[in-house]
Amino acid sequence: MLNHNPISRRAVFRVGGASLLGMSFPQLLAAAESAKAKHRATAKSVIFLHQWGGPGQHETFDPKPDAPDNVRGWYKATKTKLPGVVFGERIPKLAAMADKLCVVRCMQHAMKNHNSAGYYSLTGVAPATDDQRLRDSLDLFPAYGSIVDKLAPAPKGAATFVAYPHVIADGSITPGQHASFLGKAHSPLFVNQDPNRSDFKLPELTLPDNLSAERLGSRTDILKLIDEQSDLLETSLVAQGLDESYQKAVAMLTSPRFKQAFDLSKESKKTRDAYGRTTYGQGCLLARRAVEAGAKFVNVYFSRAIGGKGQGWDYHGFRGEDVPARLDELLPMTDQTLPALITDLEERGMLDSTLVVWVGEFGRTPRISSNGGRDHWPQCYSAVLAGGGAKKGFVYGASDKIGAYATTGQARPEDLAATMFEALGIDPETEIRDKLNRPLPIARGKPLRELFA
After folding, report:
1. What is the pLDDT of residue 66?
2. Which of 404, 411, 416 is nearest to 377 (CA)?
3. Which N-terminal stretch is annotated as signal sequence (predicted)?
4. Does one domain contain both 1 and 105?
């Protein structure tokens, strides 16, 4: 695949400095090509499955079956095809396909609050302080997909960045879900509707009978149309960005191919059932369809809230909450939907070009708390990658005997950010400019090249 971006300014300076030390012009070109080769894409798109609330490593991809009861938790472990590697007891389908997964067991950072850790996980940039009151602001960093839209946009007629079906929040809206200082033109096509509903469809412009897409050529006409159909503003952030990029937005909103991607009725009952008839399950199916239609970065939010019945992964055990009952909902859903997505992509010949990333904002404490659940734990947690050039049947990093700290490897959100950008052929050292015109690298970490063949 072709690289979409020029060599970073820092890379040019490094090569230029070498030439001053006596490197010939042919050697300079060879060095430049070598730097460029580092950023050749292994994937055309990324499906980012954000597990809001923080799934526990012990219950999923890093169980400790030989640890004491208050560490081991409520479940046993399941063997995988990988020697010495076990997954949690309640995810047997994922264990059966471990030879297709790349598991990271050493994710780590220092943010213990959902909003600050959530922002970190959605942007790869740590906030200045670990503050649960962190508020959304144009001073904060853009979402991954917005950066992709800025630097390597999808072809005309497709949305580069798609996000749904929730605006995640813990009290206040969690930052990192839109384009921030890059401008609304790079915010996602955000669909705040449940893809599991029978009437689900893409919010779209309905053109009057006497106005074709070809005639919809002026900004005035478009804004008038939006004003007449103001309900669109409530469901699509692209519509809110029409002032800045109306031609791109209208091309996408009136594209038959892209609109059809959101028509899940085109899928067979067998396929829809395989993903699971849940908001999250159908959302993952929609992600596959969006990628097929040309989207390059898709955010699927597991839930709107961090915890509670039918919500996210936060299982402290407060207020007499039955933690095993909660997990008996969350884990089987994960064990149905993630394997279905990976299998579907593989059967359609799309897995090699689509990088699937499953991760939350942090993990859970190694020991069960006095409240009967597990508390927040960013010091060591798990992420899973599949497809898009990631190694198959590979485990990166290791945690100690109770799953508290990494003993091997280090992977931070900024490293995962750099990894995703590089997989898409975007140099992680590329710079964007904030509201004050200051140059900022799109990733503050290093690509985890050990994860790729």
Report:
1. 97
2. 404
3. none
4. no
Q: Give the confidence band of 246 by pLDDT, cuts at 50, 70, 90.
A: low
- Give CA separation, 107 vs 125, 381, 399, in Å: 14, 5, 10
CB 131 within 8 A of CB 116: yes
Query: Is residue 205 over pLDDT 60?
Result: no
Instruction: Give the pLDDT of residue 29.
Output: 52
Residue 61 makes CB contacts below 8 A (sequence gap 6+) with 87, 88, 94, 103, 105, 382, 384
β strands within 7-152, DSSP E: 45-51, 77-79, 86-88, 102-107
Q: Are strands 45-51 and 297-301 parallel, antiparallel or unpaired?
A: parallel
Handedness of CA 18, 24, 27, 29 (dihedral sign): positive
Cα(22)–Cα(36) distance, rounded to whole angstroms? Answer: 21
Whole-angstrom CA distances from 131 to 113, 303, 377 are: 7, 21, 15
CB 342 within 8 A of CB 350: no
Domain extent at residue 102: 42-204+254-451
Q: Say yes or no: 30 and 173 in one domain.
A: no
Q: How many CA atoms lie within 13 A of 165 on its CB side?
A: 23
Contact 453, 43 (CB under 8 A): no
**Which residue reads 């995640």 in tokens?**
168
Question: Which CATH number do you get for residue 337?
Answer: 3.40.720.10
Report the chain's mean pLDDT, rounded to a whole number.
Answer: 86
Separate counts of helices (H) and strands (E) for the chain: 14, 18
Instruction: Count the domains in the chain.
Output: 2
Two tokens, residue 145: 């997909």
Give the tens place of pLDDT for each residue, 182-192: 998 899 988 88
**Amino acid at site 129:** T
Let me know if residue 297 belongs to a domain: yes
Sheet of strand 45-51: strand arrangement: 189-190, 161-164, 297-301, 45-51, 354-360, 381-386, 102-107, 394-396
Q: Specify whether 375 is located in the same domain as 430.
A: yes
The per-residue pLDDT for range 5-64, each reduced to its tens digit, is: 444 444 433 333 434 444 455 554 554 544 554 578 999 999 999 999 999 999 999 999
